[in-house]
DNA sequence: TCGAGTTGGTTGAACGCTCAACAAAATCGG
DNA sequence: CCGATTTTGTTGAGCGTTCAACCAACTCGA
């Protein structure tokens, strides 16, 4: 038997649309700022950040895809671009002959160091500053709940 | 004098990364579901929704761009695609010879009607169901605050 | 009324992402 | 040990978005 759709009520509609508007505007603004000031999209910035935090500034491609939340295909394309820019190089993995290590170059680290202050300032200005400390805390809990739930969906499939 | 960067502290980092992970996963999941089940990306779904709610199911291109939060260029390209699909048609505006009216076709309305239940179910499952009623309320306030703030930034430039 | 500036909309190139297909190496089960 | 399966990573085509450039029509002030 067909299941009746549980439509969104007026409050839920309002929440959903505000959420869409806010997240889209936020990410587009940060992306644009980063592109303008540092010549890289936000996704590439995140790759550089994760590499910069890793031991020896290097990670397996798969692990890097994992932590940046991207597909292997996406990361592969991105790595090719970042390699062209001289910000990253790839090297065969000694312990697994299928593997590739993504390694942040000095130029890549420098590009990240140049981009970071402006980007962090943007995150503050557009996300943290407008919210009260209590709201920041709420946002963290909400985000962690959603992220956990979505991760479960992935592993369950 | 150079201004010192106000870096994110550990809590802020955690919040920011959880937020990134959650919103990215949420939007990608919904986009994928919509693409799989209805053959359209989420952005196009939103265009159809807004048109379906407008008087006579039609809107000026500019107004449609406004409410869907997209650039005029983006909407122009999207409208071309939607027109190919037979879900939308464009017609000259009687009151402004520069203008174009975007009009939802019957086929477009039908496609929307077919896509909506599955999509709403996805929004429920991935967003509303995992959150408590209090959190949904918090998320609404947070989103509205951020959206207002970001809209101010736009108009101020 | 006429010129300058603004608004509405489109276009094409460049770019990033998705998806499916693929190849090579590792792992697992019998 | 060997065949089947899984994991790792890349590739190319197709699509959606951005950005800058552009034209046409509207508006407004002198």
Helices and strands in order:
The structure is a homodimer of 157-residue chains.
Chain A: H1 10-38, H2 42-53, E1 58-60, H3 61-68, H4 72-84, E2 88-92, E3 100-104, H5 106-128, H6 133-156
Antiparallel strand pairs in A: 1-3, 2-3
Helix pairs in contact in A: 1-5, 2-5, 3-4
Chain A binds a DNA duplex (30 and 30 nucleotides) through residues 32, 35, 41, 43-44, 60-62, 65, 70-78, 80-81, 93, 96-100.
A few lines on this structure:
2 copies of one chain form a homodimer. By secondary structure, chain A is mostly helical.
Give structural notes.
The structure is a homodimer of 157-residue chains. With 157 residues, the first copy, chain A, is mainly alpha-helical. Helices cover 69% and strands 8% of the residues of chain A. Chain A contains six helices and three strands, in the order ααβααββαα. Chain A has helices at 10-38, 42-53, 61-68, 72-84, 106-128, 133-156; strands spanning 58-60, 88-92, 100-104. In chain A, strands 1-3-2 form a three-stranded antiparallel sheet. In chain A, a hairpin with a 7-residue loop joins strand 2 and strand 3. The radius of gyration of chain A is 19 Å and the shape is globular. The structure holds a DNA duplex (30 and 30 nucleotides). Chains A, B: It holds the Pfam family MarR_2. Chains A, B: Residues 12-148 form the HTH marR-type domain. Chains A, B: This is MarR family transcriptional regulator.
